[in-house]
């Protein structure tokens, strides 16, 4: 396996880990009935975790 393939494999593992962490965070916030604090259009806002998708998918630019 070449270096390029190893880097792709590591990146894929990192992305999957980040997606799982996001899923767990949303689940935790729903259980605690605690808002998500996010940055939207340059402003800090509180968002009901029930309004947020429980999963996210990393979209990579081609190239």
Strand coverage percent: 15-25%
Query: Structural class of the secondary elements?
Result: alpha+beta
User: How widely separated are the two ends?
Assistant: 21 Å
Largest sheet descriptor: 2 strands, antiparallel
Average pLDDT metric? 88
Placed side by side, the strands forming the largest sheet appear as 1-2
Q: How many domains make up the 3D coordinates?
A: 1
Number of strands: 2
Could you please describe the fold and organization of this structure?
This protein has 63 residues and is of the alpha+beta class. The protein has one domain (3-51). It has one helix at residues 3-32; strands at residues 36-40, 43-47. The longest helix is centred in the first third of the chain and has 30 residues, at 3-32. The two termini are 21 Å apart.
In short:
With 63 residues, the protein is of the alpha+beta class. It contains one helix and two strands; from the N terminus they run αββ.
